[in-house]
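User: Please predict the structure of the protein below. I'd like the answer in structure-token form so I can feed it into my own downstream comparison script.

Assistant: Understood. Taking the following sequence of 131 residues as input:
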Amino acid sequence: MRVFLGGTCNESSWRNYIIPMLHLDYFNPVVADWTPDCMAEEIKQREICDIVLYVVTPKMTGVYSIAEVVDDSNKRPERTIFVRLRVDGKERFDGAQWRSLGAVAKMVERNGASVFTSLKSVAIAINNLAV
């Protein structure tokens, strides 16, 4: 079993926190030099991984991860997981941003996917799926 670690990049450390907690293989799309080959591999891994995890934090600068999680929650809800973290280092979502992400979380959940607000709880859930 393998999990795709999608979501916020921009020097967010959420992946460094969750990877040691996982008891299964994973694909980390973050690389030092983003090339077209890297993009192709990310798209491939998003399709073939058993679980697609999207963690969104206030360090996000683009919105593509939001589009990905909504898309996957429609197409593959049983293997899609969304996590929204209010704080990431010194960054924090303001009230309006947090409420908007809450609406996204409800949409994703209505589509049948899983939603969490902590890395520890999602790691436990993912590890339980791998058993």
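That's the full token string. The beta strands are 2-7, 25-27, 51-56, 80-84, 87-88, 91-92, 114-116.
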